Amino acid sequence: MSKDLATRLDLVKPSATLAMTALAADLKASGKTVYPFGVGQPDFQTPDYILAAVRDNLPSYSGYTPATGTVALKEAISESTLRDRGWEPKVDQITVGVGAKHVLFNLMMVLLNPGDEVIIPAPYWVSYPEQVRLFGGEPIFIDAPPSAGFRITPEQLKAALTPKTKAIILCSPSNPTGAAYTESQLKALVEVLADSDCYIIADEIYGELVYDGFQHVSLGKLAPEFSERLIVVDGVSKAYAMTGWRIGWATAPKAVTRGMAKLQGQSTTNPSAVAQAAATAAVLGPRDDVERMRQAFASRRKTMVDGLNAIEGISCEMPDGAFYAFPDVRGLYGIQHDGKPIETAKGVALWQLDACGVAAVAGEAFGAPGHIRFSYAASDELIREALGTLTEAVRTANR
Ligand SMILES: Cc1ncc(COP(=O)(O)O)c(C=O)c1O
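Above: query sequence and pyridoxal-5'-phosphate SMILES. Below: predicted holo structure tokens.
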């Protein structure tokens, strides 16, 4: 009997964000001060009103729920999406999964045949291309450079579409850049997609986290005429500080929803019952906590971006949303680390972790060499302290 593992594993790279988190944790365990800007999760605790809603009912979550989520949660998603995003997902078109990452994974499994192309603007969230490859698909990247505000243009999109295009993934606001598309920019992209029959996957998990009056426009509201091929992905992880609860969902055409239900019935059975109840309370509850956290992120965003731009060799765009800054760090190349000059963003990320405990994820994993992703899901004080240490490390570095 062969002990070889499945060859499909060779198609996938491990998550770079989780790898940096593990590296930083090791360093911290060894007693060093570590500034945790690598991890993509809020540093807040899940708000009390959510905890209170489930705390006293724990025995009632003893059993299985329907495979794609409870009716109560789906109705809550529909209601809150109407309230927050201006369109009303139909309950029978919602699939709740174990986080948006799991939902996207299931979507790729449901949609892709070998050779199908999936258009992904780069920089991209690390999991998109890996999930596409895992199911035999081919990621087709469109370059969205900082000079274009990290956004793709309709012309680029038109040029990337082929008869093999099965889907496009649009993430707005974006991980890792924080860039978001305005209503007119989205409209222009969607107009191009009218000439194709591909699925449009809108990852709107950061939709609540926008700043300086930026208006997030959901594709569900903007492009109802695409409902036969539009899939909107969302979840409670980011806006409600609930990454550990693992609840995300997709609103999709009925056939896709049926496919996802079939898969979940043979894999996860259902997302955790208590987490679903907590997510139900989260999205239906008062908005004060979401707003409190959003305002904290807004302030940290300025602290982080202004602080990074004050460091010689680093240059950073002001993001519209999410909680990431994504500076160009090529000006730091040439610093000596381990007896060699740094030549890559990965080199910069390892050097700054070593030199001053600042943990952030190198851009190569996001399809953006030359950049580093700093998550500003940390207090203003911590960000200031870290950037002070980094400034000093850059000033005194050997070149
Ligand atoms: C763009 C994007 N989509 C989806 C997810 C998945 O979130 P979760 O699985 O926690 O719901 C993340 C998390 O980092 C993300 O950044």
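Residues 7-45+289-396 form a domain with the Aspartate Aminotransferase, domain 1 fold (CATH 3.90.1150.10).
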